[in-house]
Amino acid sequence: MSAASTRKFCLDPFCLRQFDDPKYSGTKVAHDKADFLERIIAAHDAGNAPLVDGYAPFCKHLFVPNFTPATTPYLPITPENEGLLRTAYDARTEQELPVLTRWFPAETVPAPPIAKFLDIILYSREQIRKEAEAMGRTDDQTEPWGIISVKAQDVDYELPMQPITMMRNALGKSEGGSGVPLVREKYNESVNFWKQHAPIY
């Protein structure tokens, strides 16, 4: 049996924009994709990055020390910088509906520091295939878990996803979400964090 056929993780196509698209608005990963995956697999296999439960049974996290140039992609909102915030309607893919977002333009704020950790977000193969089918895409990968997002941050635990992401998930797979209903407590936690912070694009 080949090593590829026994691997537990792979890079999902949804995640590749973080490596390949210079206009991507979240964490940009300036690192060779194959080496990145090998490092994540090695960290997990060595017991240094166990699977951590996410917001739904099909979602897991791995937390690893940051070995890339990725910087912390958000800032606290202060009276001094809140006038720099910008808003627009944006969609992550061509199939999704645009939603209202806000951010700090990268050229208007001090360069953020290199992040201390990477939050590796994984979806189960079953969930990835369900979402791909709902959006009219095919999924030919076979690994049990796909890395769907990488978040650079300064803590080794999950930060709240943005409220609009929770809303999109609740809309269902046909609109680019996961189909997980809103949980009021988790939504309020998200609001409490993101009303005080904004991403840097």
Can you walk through the features of this model?
This protein has 201 residues and is of the alpha+beta class. It folds into two domains: 7-73 and 116-157, 2-Layer Sandwich (YaeB-like fold); 77-111 and 160-200, no CATH class. 27% of the residues lie in helices and 22% in strands. The protein contains six helices and nine strands. It has helices at 3-6, 13-20, 33-45, 125-134, 163-171, 184-194, and strands at 9-11, 52-53, 59-65, 74-76, 86-90, 99-103, 117-124, 145-153, 197-199. It has a five-stranded mixed sheet with strand order 1-8-7-3-2. Strand 5 (86-90) and strand 6 (99-103) form a beta hairpin. The radius of gyration is 17 Å and the shape is globular.
Features:
201 residues, 5-stranded mixed sheet, YaeB-like fold, two-stranded antiparallel sheet, Flagellar associated protein
Concise overview:
This protein has 201 residues and is α+β, with helices and mostly antiparallel strands. The protein contains six helices and nine strands.
